[in-house]
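hi!! sorry for the late reply, been swamped w classes. u asked for the two structures so here they r. pasted raw, havent cleaned anything up. first the sequence of the first protein and right below it the tokens
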Amino acid sequence: MIIPKNLEELATYVDKGQNVFFFTADWCGDCRFIKPALPEIEADFPQYKFIEVDRDKYIDVAAKWNIFGIPSLVVIKDGKELGRLVNKDRKTKAEIEDFLNSL
């Protein structure tokens, strides 16, 4: 999981590559629930880079991307959105993998 140090670094992942943006926050219980499964999900989908986006640190990005519930995932390839799993519900490993397989 890549954790960008600033907005400029985060922007580089939007513009180039095939990336999964994982919106999260320290206080989010559902985010903490799925986090232990993320290394396995990353291993199952090596075609993607996984980028952790702290919703509180990047609140303007979250608002611009209509991220009003976390944990949420947005997949972008070379600046074009391929799909999103955005809601406030708890996500399971199977649900995330089904979503990524559907793209």
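now the second protein. again sequence first, tokens right under
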Amino acid sequence: MKYNAIDRNLFIQNRKNFSAAMKPKSIAFFNSNDIYPVSADSTLPFEQHRDIFYLSGVDQEESVLVLFPDCPKPAYREILFLRETNEHIAVWEGEKLTKERAEEVSGITTVFWLQDMQKVIFELMSYAEVLYINTNEHYRANVETETREDRFTKWLRQEYPAHAVAKSNPILQRLRSVKNQVELDLIQKACDITEKGFRRVLDFVKPGVWEYEIEAEYIHEFIRNRSKKFAYTPIIASGANANVLHYIENNQQCKAGDLILMDVGAEYANYSSDMSRTIPVSGRFTDRQKAVYNAVNRVKNEATKLLVPGTIWADYHVEVGKIMTSELLGLGLLDKAAVQNEDPNWPAYKKYFMHGTSHHLGLDTHDYGLLHEPMEANMVFTVEPGIYLPDEGFGIRLEDDVVIQASGEPFNLMRNIPIEAEEIESLMNQ
């Protein structure tokens, strides 16, 4: 892995927290992701399933974690199953975890090769009454592919139909949404790498560059700072492209006078950052561009103050809508009649700001979190308002990643990334 070793106490504590929430005499299983084929002998780069990583730190394919806190055999209360490695695999594929190295990474002392798994599980099932299966219940999930986890669950329920079934996901939604300090440090590292990429781009952009060239500048800086990739598919949207919310073609030339909306973030150790900045191709905003830019920035700053313990996500977005409405009135984009006669299910401001303001951030860019439950300290949220003006040929989105504090305003993990219009102009013209 490119990233530095993570303190295994993070994973030890995560397992303790999960086990404490399990029912009596229950056993939970977590699988690595598949390596997905492309065609012929080509595959996509491996991405570890975030749940097994969160609970073990294991970052390789064909791994299974078993948690059985009430097992009468203490050695079997935490078990890792790994693909057996050997010298041939090391030569052709690179180093894989040995049993000793897996213990160092995870803090789990009982490690078996995968070939022994069915035999061990057969024994464990005689002690267990409840099976925890791990389904994807994220509110944005739309998965058509049958995953390794899905296949394992199907096999497990077929082989052991007499056991009761429970779900791991609600437990993980709560646990993963509140970050440990080690996790916060990893997300901060991802944000710091993103900052380096952004500062590089500020020095690079000028009329005539192509969106894909800007994308290349980012990934160069990310990889040289131990990130393996973008945390998500980057958006480099110049001119009117910024009005396509998920524009990812990044294939147009940047023209003098236009703005570039960049929604990019580095990952680090599987943790995500998520940044949006909008900059002028020519190094200077027009008066109109700056007025809209500053309005978006004010909405971001005011919205951030609302992210405090006890806040409900849906109520928060209603309040942000009121702030945005005020700014749109000030810009002349809305009038009072439009606001007074608005459809409450689609308020007037939605014409110019049609997406949500915040989402959980962590191991996933759109991370786990139960949105109907109150916000808590150490949750990490994005704050990303935008105003999109297709008739004027530009759109602006600004986004930071912040940590909710026990009291006071959130802590901004992107506090060092330039955002004020004047600072952007100064850096682009120095």
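hope this helps!! also noticed smth abt the second:
The longest strand covers residues 26-31.
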